[in-house]
Amino acid sequence: MTTKTINDQTIDFDDEGFMTDYTQWSTEIAAALAEEEGIGTLTDRHFAVIDFMRKEFEEKGSGPSIRRLTKESGVPTKELYQLFPGGPAKKAARIAGIKKPQGCI
Amino acid sequence: MNTSTLEAPAPTKEKERIKKVSIIISKGSLEGVYPGLIMANGARMEGIEANLFFTFFGLEAVIQKKMNKLKVATVGNPAMHMPSLIGILPGMSAFATSMMKKEMEKIDIPPVDEFIEMISDAGGHLYGCKATVDMFHLTKKDFCPQVDSIITVGDFYEMAAGGEIIFT
Questions:
Q1: Could you tell me how many CB contacts below 8 A there are between chain A and chain B?
Q2: What is the CATH number of the domain that holds B46?
Q3: Residue B48, domain member (yes or no)
């Protein structure tokens, strides 16, 4: 486990760079993590994905599968891959401040 | 002579990553098709380039009229833990198929047509095998719209160059 200071706030991360406590998250932290992932500035569409992931995580304890994500967040598969190029499930989960996705789909 | 000072520190090797996979789906049973689809979709989720090549009976997975009617094979499969004599009974395959589909739905594995669409939208490419298409007298019209083109084995190797090839 490692810690990093973002915006004067100490954030805990696991060895793979996922936040271990999603309650430490804020939109400023999301912006900093998005910068690290090479995503750039986050738009409303990014947040449609991030908010859905966080909601799902809060309710179920794990992030959604890509299938659920695209069906229920209102962001279709094509757009999801454009918003988070190079591996949407993990990148979006990392920026959303939740644990690494566990499913295969 | 002391050689220890000559040894440079081992360079920190960057973790090796797979960049591209080309997956061949050659079987037309439900359990023959899904592993390849799951691996292709999983590759795209990780940002890995993915090609799917459907050949022989595997082609049924991209034939519009057949893709959602694939069945689990209940004969000749020891892992079914069912004597083949029972496996041949009418309805056994349909029963095993509906059981498996139910379980798959629970863990969010989509039906074949939806899965193919997902993989295609995710940037994966799908190809049909020319030899099989000729053998079964099929045309482009028989396939779902996500199939990019019908290609030869030579084209496949060209396309797979620089990546991993997985045969299922």
A1: 42
A2: 3.40.1260.10
A3: yes
Give the total number of structural domains in chain B. 1
Task: Using DSSP, state whether A83 is helix, strand or coil.
Answer: helix
The C-alpha atoms of residue B73 and residue A82 are separated, in whole angstroms, by 38
ipTM, two decimals: 0.88
Q: Say what the pLDDT of residue B67 is.
A: 94
- What number of other Cβ atoms are within 10 A of residue A50's Cβ? 24
CA–CA distance, B61 with A24 (Å, rounded to integer)? 45
Q: Give the containing element (helix H, strand E) for B127.
A: strand B125-129
| Whole-Å CA distances, A84 to A40, A45, B2, B4, B135 | 10, 11, 53, 47, 42
Give me the domain span that covers residue B55: 20-73+111-167
Contact state of B122 with A86 under an 8 Å Cβ cutoff: no
Question: Which residues of A does the annotation mark as catalytic?
Answer: 104
pLDDT at A2: 86
Q: Do A92 and A81 contact (CB within 8 A), yes or no? A: no
Compute the nearest-CA separation of B42 from chain A (Å).
Answer: 6
Task: Classify residue B34: in a domain, yes or no.
Answer: yes
User: Which regions of B9-83 does DSSP assign to beta strands (E)?
Assistant: 20-25, 49-54
State pLDDT tens for residues A30-86.
999 999 999 989 999 999 999 999 999 999 988 898 998 998 989 999 999 999 998
Phi, psi of A61 (to 5 degrees): 85, 0
